Prior knowledge:
Layout: H1 37-59, H2 64-89, H3 106-149, E1 170-171, E2 188-193, E3 204-208, E4 228-232, E5 244-246, E6 251-253, E7 260-262, E8 268-271, E9 283-285, E10 291-293
Helix pairs in contact: 1-2, 1-3, 2-3
Amino acid sequence: MxxxxxxxxxxxxxSLPQRPEPQPELPPSPTGERSPTRPIALGFTVSxxxxxxxxxxxxxxxxxxxxGLLLFFALGGIAVGFIVWxxxxxxxxxxxxERHPLSSGEEEQEEATEALEEGAESLERRRxxxxxxxxxxxxxxxxxxxxxxxxxxxxxxxxxxxAWRRGSRVVDENGRPVRPGDLDVGGVLTVFPAxxxxxxxxxxxxxxxASGQYKPRRGRENWAVDDVxxxxxxxxHAGCPVGLYEPDAHRLFCPCHQSVFAVLDxxxxxxxxxxxxxxxxxxxxxGEGYLxxxxxxxxxxxxxxxxxxx
Length: 310
Protein backbone atom coordinates (compact mmCIF):
# COMPACT_ATOMS: atom_id res chain seq x y z
CA MET A 1 0.00 0.00 0.00
CA UNK A 2 1.44 3.33 -1.02
CA UNK A 3 1.82 6.02 1.66
CA UNK A 4 0.13 9.24 0.73
CA UNK A 5 1.98 12.52 1.27
CA UNK A 6 -0.24 15.41 2.34
CA UNK A 7 -0.44 18.21 -0.13
CA UNK A 8 2.02 21.07 0.43
CA UNK A 9 4.66 18.84 2.07
CA UNK A 10 7.82 17.51 0.51
CA UNK A 11 9.30 14.15 1.19
CA UNK A 12 12.15 14.18 3.81
CA UNK A 13 15.49 12.78 2.84
CA UNK A 14 17.58 11.12 5.56
CA SER A 15 20.58 13.27 6.73
CA LEU A 16 23.98 11.86 5.92
CA PRO A 17 26.70 11.86 8.58
CA GLN A 18 29.21 14.67 8.13
CA ARG A 19 32.70 13.57 7.36
CA PRO A 20 35.36 15.06 9.62
CA GLU A 21 37.53 17.70 8.04
CA PRO A 22 41.08 16.57 7.38
CA GLN A 23 43.50 17.58 10.15
CA PRO A 24 46.75 19.36 9.41
CA GLU A 25 49.63 16.99 9.38
CA LEU A 26 52.11 17.46 12.25
CA PRO A 27 55.77 16.74 11.79
CA PRO A 28 56.43 13.05 12.45
CA SER A 29 58.11 12.09 15.66
CA PRO A 30 61.82 11.37 15.25
CA THR A 31 62.47 7.67 15.16
CA GLY A 32 65.35 5.38 14.42
CA GLU A 33 68.67 6.87 13.41
CA ARG A 34 67.28 10.39 13.06
CA SER A 35 66.31 10.64 16.71
CA PRO A 36 67.74 13.84 18.31
CA THR A 37 68.09 12.11 21.64
CA ARG A 38 71.44 10.67 20.55
CA PRO A 39 73.34 13.98 20.24
CA ILE A 40 71.69 15.21 23.46
CA ALA A 41 72.72 12.09 25.35
CA LEU A 42 76.21 12.33 23.83
CA GLY A 43 76.57 15.95 24.95
CA PHE A 44 75.56 15.17 28.54
CA THR A 45 77.83 12.09 28.60
CA VAL A 46 80.80 14.11 27.35
CA SER A 47 80.09 16.70 30.03
CA UNK A 48 80.08 14.07 32.78
CA UNK A 49 83.32 12.52 31.55
CA UNK A 50 85.03 15.92 31.29
CA UNK A 51 83.90 16.91 34.80
CA UNK A 52 85.23 13.66 36.26
CA UNK A 53 88.50 14.21 34.40
CA UNK A 54 88.69 17.78 35.71
CA UNK A 55 88.39 16.56 39.28
CA UNK A 56 91.05 13.90 38.75
CA UNK A 57 93.51 16.34 37.14
CA UNK A 58 93.03 18.89 39.92
CA UNK A 59 93.46 16.25 42.63
CA UNK A 60 96.73 15.08 41.05
CA UNK A 61 98.26 18.55 41.19
CA UNK A 62 96.57 20.34 38.34
CA UNK A 63 97.59 21.49 34.87
CA UNK A 64 96.14 24.81 33.80
CA UNK A 65 95.76 24.17 30.06
CA UNK A 66 94.27 20.71 30.54
CA UNK A 67 91.91 21.96 33.23
CA GLY A 68 90.71 24.72 30.90
CA LEU A 69 90.10 22.22 28.09
CA LEU A 70 88.17 19.85 30.36
CA LEU A 71 86.09 22.71 31.74
CA PHE A 72 85.27 23.73 28.15
CA PHE A 73 83.93 20.26 27.36
CA ALA A 74 82.10 20.00 30.71
CA LEU A 75 80.17 23.21 30.09
CA GLY A 76 79.99 22.82 26.31
CA GLY A 77 78.43 19.35 26.54
CA ILE A 78 75.61 20.69 28.69
CA ALA A 79 75.14 23.65 26.34
CA VAL A 80 74.94 21.43 23.24
CA GLY A 81 72.43 19.15 24.94
CA PHE A 82 70.21 22.09 25.86
CA ILE A 83 70.36 23.57 22.36
CA VAL A 84 69.44 20.32 20.59
CA TRP A 85 66.77 19.55 23.20
CA UNK A 86 65.11 22.92 22.72
CA UNK A 87 65.33 22.83 18.94
CA UNK A 88 64.25 19.23 18.33
CA UNK A 89 62.17 17.90 21.21
CA UNK A 90 60.19 20.89 22.42
CA UNK A 91 57.08 21.96 20.46
CA UNK A 92 57.96 24.45 17.76
CA UNK A 93 54.34 25.60 17.08
CA UNK A 94 52.16 27.43 16.99
CA UNK A 95 49.65 24.84 15.74
CA UNK A 96 46.02 25.72 14.96
CA UNK A 97 43.25 23.65 13.48
CA GLU A 98 39.46 23.69 13.20
CA ARG A 99 37.59 21.64 15.73
CA HIS A 100 36.07 18.64 14.05
CA PRO A 101 33.14 16.44 15.10
CA LEU A 102 34.26 13.95 17.70
CA SER A 103 34.13 10.41 16.46
CA SER A 104 35.63 7.15 17.52
CA GLY A 105 35.69 5.03 14.46
CA GLU A 106 38.01 2.12 13.96
CA GLU A 107 40.53 4.23 12.08
CA GLU A 108 40.61 6.87 14.80
CA GLN A 109 41.08 4.24 17.48
CA GLU A 110 44.07 2.83 15.64
CA GLU A 111 45.59 6.32 15.33
CA ALA A 112 45.06 6.96 19.05
CA THR A 113 46.75 3.67 19.92
CA GLU A 114 49.75 4.51 17.74
CA ALA A 115 50.02 7.99 19.25
CA LEU A 116 49.90 6.53 22.76
CA GLU A 117 52.67 4.08 21.96
CA GLU A 118 54.82 6.79 20.40
CA GLY A 119 54.21 9.01 23.46
CA ALA A 120 55.31 6.26 25.82
CA GLU A 121 58.50 5.74 23.83
CA SER A 122 59.17 9.48 23.82
CA LEU A 123 58.61 9.63 27.57
CA GLU A 124 61.19 6.91 28.15
CA ARG A 125 63.71 8.80 26.01
CA ARG A 126 63.13 11.98 27.94
CA ARG A 127 63.54 10.19 31.26
CA UNK A 128 66.92 8.97 30.04
CA UNK A 129 67.92 12.49 29.02
CA UNK A 130 66.86 13.92 32.37
CA UNK A 131 68.98 11.31 34.16
CA UNK A 132 71.97 12.16 31.97
CA UNK A 133 71.45 15.89 32.54
CA UNK A 134 71.31 15.34 36.30
CA UNK A 135 74.49 13.27 36.13
CA UNK A 136 76.25 16.02 34.14
CA UNK A 137 75.38 18.67 36.73
CA UNK A 138 76.34 16.42 39.65
CA UNK A 139 79.71 15.60 38.07
CA UNK A 140 80.39 19.27 37.34
CA UNK A 141 79.47 20.26 40.89
CA UNK A 142 81.73 17.56 42.30
CA UNK A 143 84.62 18.80 40.16
CA UNK A 144 84.15 22.34 41.46
CA UNK A 145 84.45 21.14 45.07
CA UNK A 146 88.22 20.71 44.67
CA UNK A 147 88.99 24.37 43.81
CA UNK A 148 86.67 25.56 46.58
CA UNK A 149 88.46 23.38 49.14
CA UNK A 150 91.82 24.78 48.01
CA UNK A 151 90.77 28.24 49.21
CA UNK A 152 91.69 27.07 52.71
CA UNK A 153 89.93 27.30 56.02
CA UNK A 154 87.66 30.16 56.97
CA UNK A 155 89.59 32.94 58.74
CA UNK A 156 87.21 32.90 61.70
CA UNK A 157 88.43 35.35 64.32
CA UNK A 158 92.07 35.32 63.18
CA UNK A 159 91.67 38.75 61.56
CA UNK A 160 90.80 40.23 64.95
CA UNK A 161 93.96 39.17 66.82
CA UNK A 162 97.72 38.85 66.36
CA ALA A 163 100.44 36.68 67.93
CA TRP A 164 100.91 39.10 70.84
CA ARG A 165 99.77 37.72 74.20
CA ARG A 166 100.06 38.88 77.77
CA GLY A 167 103.69 38.30 78.81
CA SER A 168 105.00 37.91 75.23
CA ARG A 169 108.64 39.04 75.27
CA VAL A 170 109.58 41.73 72.76
CA VAL A 171 112.35 40.57 70.39
CA ASP A 172 113.99 42.01 67.27
CA GLU A 173 113.96 40.35 63.85
CA ASN A 174 116.86 38.11 64.95
CA GLY A 175 115.01 36.88 68.03
CA ARG A 176 117.05 38.89 70.56
CA PRO A 177 115.04 40.29 73.51
CA VAL A 178 114.92 44.07 73.88
CA ARG A 179 115.34 46.30 76.94
CA PRO A 180 114.11 49.91 77.07
CA GLY A 181 117.70 51.14 77.28
CA ASP A 182 118.61 49.50 73.97
CA LEU A 183 117.06 52.43 72.10
CA ASP A 184 118.36 56.00 71.96
CA VAL A 185 116.00 58.98 71.99
CA GLY A 186 114.49 59.25 68.52
CA GLY A 187 115.39 55.66 67.78
CA VAL A 188 112.96 53.20 66.19
CA LEU A 189 113.10 49.40 66.04
CA THR A 190 110.87 46.77 64.42
CA VAL A 191 110.04 44.04 66.93
CA PHE A 192 107.95 40.87 67.16
CA PRO A 193 106.58 38.59 69.89
CA ALA A 194 109.13 35.95 70.88
CA UNK A 195 108.76 32.83 68.74
CA UNK A 196 106.79 34.66 66.04
CA UNK A 197 109.33 36.70 64.13
CA UNK A 198 107.65 35.59 60.88
CA UNK A 199 104.20 36.92 61.86
CA UNK A 200 103.64 39.82 59.47
CA UNK A 201 100.53 41.01 61.28
CA UNK A 202 102.45 41.24 64.59
CA UNK A 203 105.30 43.48 63.43
CA UNK A 204 105.51 46.46 65.76
CA UNK A 205 107.49 49.70 65.91
CA UNK A 206 109.27 50.59 69.16
CA UNK A 207 109.92 54.33 69.41
CA UNK A 208 112.03 56.01 72.11
CA UNK A 209 110.69 59.48 72.96
CA ALA A 210 112.33 62.19 75.01
CA SER A 211 111.37 62.39 78.64
CA GLY A 212 107.97 64.01 79.14
CA GLN A 213 106.99 63.97 75.47
CA TYR A 214 104.62 61.02 75.72
CA LYS A 215 101.01 62.16 76.15
CA PRO A 216 99.01 59.02 76.68
CA ARG A 217 95.33 58.81 75.95
CA ARG A 218 92.92 58.15 78.75
CA GLY A 219 93.26 54.58 79.93
CA ARG A 220 96.73 54.17 78.39
CA GLU A 221 98.81 55.84 81.09
CA ASN A 222 100.78 52.66 81.84
CA TRP A 223 101.24 51.48 78.24
CA ALA A 224 104.74 53.00 77.86
CA VAL A 225 107.96 51.99 79.65
CA ASP A 226 110.72 54.59 80.12
CA ASP A 227 109.25 56.71 77.29
CA VAL A 228 109.29 53.74 74.92
CA UNK A 229 106.00 53.36 73.03
CA UNK A 230 104.89 50.66 70.59
CA UNK A 231 102.57 50.97 67.59
CA UNK A 232 101.55 48.54 64.87
CA UNK A 233 103.72 48.76 61.77
CA UNK A 234 100.81 47.78 59.49
CA UNK A 235 99.19 50.82 57.88
CA UNK A 236 95.48 51.19 58.50
CA HIS A 237 94.87 52.18 54.89
CA ALA A 238 96.12 49.30 52.72
CA GLY A 239 98.31 47.23 55.05
CA CYS A 240 101.70 48.52 53.87
CA PRO A 241 104.58 48.63 56.40
CA VAL A 242 104.91 52.05 58.04
CA GLY A 243 108.70 52.13 58.23
CA LEU A 244 109.73 55.78 57.95
CA TYR A 245 110.09 57.85 61.12
CA GLU A 246 110.85 61.55 61.36
CA PRO A 247 112.15 62.06 64.92
CA ASP A 248 112.17 65.87 64.84
CA ALA A 249 108.48 66.07 63.94
CA HIS A 250 107.57 62.77 65.69
CA ARG A 251 105.75 61.51 62.61
CA LEU A 252 105.51 58.11 60.95
CA PHE A 253 105.19 57.87 57.17
CA CYS A 254 103.71 55.12 55.01
CA PRO A 255 105.76 54.93 51.77
CA CYS A 256 102.93 53.33 49.75
CA HIS A 257 100.30 56.07 49.79
CA GLN A 258 101.92 58.77 51.91
CA SER A 259 99.77 58.50 55.01
CA VAL A 260 101.26 60.44 57.95
CA PHE A 261 100.71 59.53 61.64
CA ALA A 262 101.39 61.75 64.65
CA VAL A 263 103.22 59.65 67.27
CA LEU A 264 102.72 62.10 70.15
CA ASP A 265 98.97 62.09 69.50
CA UNK A 266 98.39 58.34 69.62
CA UNK A 267 99.46 57.92 65.96
CA UNK A 268 96.41 59.72 64.66
CA UNK A 269 96.50 60.16 60.86
CA UNK A 270 97.38 63.71 59.83
CA UNK A 271 97.34 63.37 56.05
CA UNK A 272 96.96 60.76 53.33
CA UNK A 273 94.20 58.21 52.77
CA UNK A 274 94.42 56.48 56.19
CA UNK A 275 91.46 57.28 58.46
CA UNK A 276 92.29 55.22 61.57
CA UNK A 277 95.23 55.63 63.97
CA UNK A 278 97.84 52.92 64.24
CA UNK A 279 96.84 50.56 67.09
CA UNK A 280 99.05 50.87 70.18
CA UNK A 281 100.57 47.86 71.95
CA UNK A 282 100.63 48.05 75.78
CA UNK A 283 104.15 47.44 77.20
CA UNK A 284 105.68 46.40 80.51
CA UNK A 285 108.99 44.89 81.71
CA UNK A 286 109.54 41.44 83.15
CA GLY A 287 111.72 40.45 86.09
CA GLU A 288 114.85 40.51 83.93
CA GLY A 289 114.21 44.01 82.62
CA TYR A 290 113.12 42.96 79.14
CA LEU A 291 110.15 44.49 77.42
CA UNK A 292 106.99 42.36 77.31
CA UNK A 293 103.44 42.93 76.10
CA UNK A 294 100.56 43.45 78.50
CA UNK A 295 98.31 41.81 75.91
CA UNK A 296 97.32 41.94 72.28
CA UNK A 297 96.36 45.10 70.43
CA UNK A 298 93.01 46.38 71.74
CA UNK A 299 91.64 46.64 68.17
CA UNK A 300 92.22 44.88 64.84
CA UNK A 301 95.38 45.99 63.05
CA UNK A 302 95.69 46.94 59.40
CA UNK A 303 93.03 48.18 56.98
CA UNK A 304 89.39 48.16 57.95
CA UNK A 305 86.96 45.66 56.46
CA UNK A 306 83.20 45.18 56.37
CA UNK A 307 82.75 43.54 59.80
CA UNK A 308 85.76 44.94 61.63
CA UNK A 309 83.62 46.44 64.40
CA UNK A 310 82.40 43.06 65.63
